[in-house]
Amino acid sequence: MACVAVLASATASCAEGFWGGEHPLIALAGKVPLTAAGTEVVFADLEAGRVEAAAMFRGEDAQTQRFALMTLARPPWPFDATPLSYMDLPDDFIALAGFDFDGIAQIAGWGLPTEGELLLTGDGIANPGRIGAAMEARGYVARDLGGVPVWHRLKDGEIDSTLRRELDPFAGTMGAAVRLAVRDDELLMSRTWAGLEGMLAGTRRLTDDPEIAAVLEAVTQAEAGSLTMLILPSELPRAEGLAESILGPRAAPEAVAALKERLSAGARLPPYRRWAIAGYQDGVRAGGALAFVYDSAEDAAVALEAIGANAVSMTDLLVDRTYADLFEAPLEAGTVEAGGRHVAVVRFTWDQQERVRQAGRDELRPIDLMRSPFSLLQSMYAKRGLMPLVAMR
Length: 393
Hints:
alpha+beta, 2 domains
């Protein structure tokens, strides 16, 4: 059974962090409209993932390194990266997309699947001339929106299967509506006009919210290697009604009652303001973390004890193993003070090279990176298996 280690408490500073300055994902969050916080927001640091992938698979071909990158820092929907994971980039990719994929530094994505938004940054990717040439050659219409050049196709939310292109990253495998804008060093994409206008408006940004700012500072300060992925869930799970939500409306009453009993037996997790799921890579060591924002140090300390107790004793719904056994790694826990808030951080790590050796192999392959503490947390979150661990009681 995995043990619980206690990390030393730390005080985070937004201006000067572990990376020697403002972390790129904090800078990116400072460009995402605060309205995005009403949905799940996903960040991917491709620049950091690219460095880690190149170090682990030095000497391998570009496609091998790109596959490794896609497991470490997978771009969020609606950036369609699936074909890029297994296909060679054609020589005319720049002509197709209007930018060099390898030039993307960071990406943020949010919104509903039918109304998603994207924000991309990176040196040289926001070139109006190349974007315009690529988009207009594919039938996009040019437009000026408040002084910002925009290229668009189809009506809001519309899909045309005749427009599908497998290597088109902007929902191209669907042939969906796109509004693509170039502003400074950014590419902004939305599937609706309202979404794009919201991105361009001079409204408040994610970092203007003190709880979001605190959790961002906390996860970027963790000395766990490169932060490659970050999820800001919109849902704050509560034990009340959680059993019905997880099991669905057709669940047998006795099953609902049993899950309610299990939830009530778990250690109490005090109500938190915001939470996040983070993924790290440090050479062959992979990490996944949960972070919870509290107003008081006392509540953050109680939360750490509760998470540790629940990880050891509660079983995951899908595989019937305790969370600690599921991760097969030490559970590290500590608090970070950020922006006057107290962030409880729980982290799982493991050595991917060692896990390969335990499987009887010596060579670490890119596909091995698909199983990591973060990928487990992400999958469990998507399937609601993580909710009993993080539900407030």
